[in-house]
Amino acid sequence: MFNKILIANRGEIALRVVRAAREMGIASVAVHSTADADAMHVRMADESVCIGPPSSAQSYLSFPAIISACEITGAEAIHPGYGFLSENAQFVQIVEDHGLTFIGPTAEHIRVMGDKITAKDTMKALGVPCVPGSDGGVATLDEAKKLGEEMGYPVIIKATAGGGGRGMKVAQNAGEMERAFMTARSESKAAFGNDEVYIEKYLTTPRHIEVQVFGDGKGRAVHLGERDCSLQRRHQKVFEEAPGPAISAEERAAIGKVCADAVAKINYIGAGTIEFLYEKGEFFFIEMNTRLQVEHPVTEAIFGVDLVREQIRVASGMDMTFQQEDLQINGHSIEVRLNAEKLPNFSPSPGRITQYHAPGGLGVRMDSALYDGYAIPPYYDSLIGKLIVHGRDRPEALARLNRALGELIIDGVDTTIPLFHELLAEGDIHSGDYNIHWLEHWLETHMG
Which strand (E) or helix (H) includes residue 27? Predict the structure, then answer.
């Protein structure tokens, strides 16, 4: 087991890893930019190293700064959290070249799954169901139009190196193809330095279902059920729950086994999430995230496991603490993402926290790095916390979420808390009758 690990991240996820390490008796090293000198993860870690100015490119994304911090402190391994360098194959290779351990999958697995076309081809070969689409990148408009006619509209054009909803455009018919195709390519070039796109059939009313998998790198893997992340705004998840309200036990077992078998065959190590669109009883693979997800706490809640602890264990060469037969679902869990944003436009709202009170009680977990007097910097993602609740069933989880939101106080900045108060008054939320387009339509009528 490691004696000391460095956490190459910030905010609530860095604090999450610090806590897991402390419970395991492992010393932790926090890295931070000058803007994060007073951040909670810096205060809570055993050691901290300033790695640069506020700009992410010069701090949290700087390979030399992070490797140097390991050498200075004697850290043996790096936990990347999510975002930043968590899915950067080049960084992982450099970590390994310096004799350090990356707490996550191999550089090769990140590389394969990071390219959407390669990932789809790989998953198809492993028996994972995929959305009908182009066999590879689509280079010309004529080729795109031909594919649109063959598959039938609507279709979606996606950046092969994409993520976060960038480089994605829908063409509802042949007349919209040219604009959608050219816009997707230009957005992809601007966001990722790569204008290659591919085309898939666009499902009209799907749910976003993701399966949590975990491998030991030795040919053994399990699945930990699914999460429903269908409530999204601009392809960004807002509200996540487990298990999915529309998924049967039989469907869960079947798709879970397919996913676990697939990652076992490639000797995947650590946590990963295989994401699907689900419509009319069918699952269609869209991508694999080779890291811990923002919404991992809902899975932890219903299975009673610590995924970060397991990540650290298998990275050190130890076995997983559970097998598939040990994993039984207990109750229902929901997470809402809390952003420092001003409604209705969701514009960033950095600033100083004048009062903060986290909710508590049975089945309530608040993952946040906020504290009274903390100044939220304007340089990073606006996520400031995640409120997670767990109940014996979905109605109890919803009631607990409503109660916890009523206790939560974050003053000094605008937040998205009011959005969740309004959503919990909607019948469709209580019935679970929603898809990936539901929230966008609701926002147009309620906050447009």
Answer: strand 27-33
Nearest-CA neighbor of 10 among 38, 34, 30? 30
User: By the 8 A CB rule, do 171 and 154 touch?
Assistant: yes
Identity (one letter) of the amino acid at 45? A
Torsion, CA 286, CA 290, CA 291, CA 292, rounded to 10: 40
Q: Are residues 34 and 170 in the same domain?
A: no
- Looking at the fold, whether 350 and 381 belong to one and the same domain comes out as yes
CA distance 125 to 285: 12
In this predicted structure, what is the pLDDT of residue 163?
Answer: 65
Residue 180 CA, distance from chain mean position: 26
Up-side HSE of residue 310: CA atoms within 13 Å toward CB? 25
Strand segments, DSSP code E, in 322-433 are 332-339, 341-342, 347-348, 351-352, 355-357, 364-368, 375-376, 383-391, 409-411
pLDDT in tens, 391-443: 999 999 999 999 999 999 999 999 999 999 999 999 999 999 999 999 999 99
For 23, phi then psi, to 5°, come to -65, -25
- Of 201, 223, 250, the one marking the end of a domain is 201
Structure confidence at residue 134 (pLDDT) = 87
Write down the pLDDT at residue 448.
63
Between strands 4-7 and 27-33, the pairing is parallel
Q: Regarding beta strands 155-163 and 197-201, do their DSSP bridges make them parallel or antiparallel, or are they unpaired?
A: antiparallel
- The verdict on 227 and 280 lying in the same domain is yes
DSSP H helices in 196-320: 249-265, 296-303, 307-315
CATH no. for residue 62?
A: 3.40.50.20
Residue 158 and residue 220 in one domain:
no
Q: Which residues are catalytically annotated?
A: 291
Is pTM beyond 0.70? Reply is: yes
Whether residue 408 lies inside any domain: the answer is yes
**Domain shared by 38 and 166, yes or no:** no
The residue range of the domain holding 33 is 4-87
Tell me the C-alpha distance between 278 and 208, whole Å.
6
- Number of domain units in the chain: 3
| Domain's final residue, options 168, 201, 234 | 201
67 shares its domain with 152: no
